[in-house]
Amino acid sequence: MGKHFGELARVRHVITYSLSPFEQRAVPNMFSHGLPNVMRRFRSQVLKVVPPFAIAYLIYSWGTQEFERLKRKNPADYEHDQ
Q: Measured at the alpha carbon of residue 18, what is the angle toward residues 16 and 19, in degrees to the nearest 5?
């Protein structure tokens, strides 16, 4: 009764490559090559990423403090009220 799901269409000119799971190494040289590579990449990008975030944080914290300051009432405006 019809074709199965994997056989619905015939795909031509598609080449697939695979490696046997027994020939793969899941985590080769992770500590000897991987961690130094992570540190190298981190150091090369930190000066490009951190300054915009630091500036954004400073602007945000200044804006929050200014909003809280402006939200308060001025006590000098109410000195002569009795």
A: 165
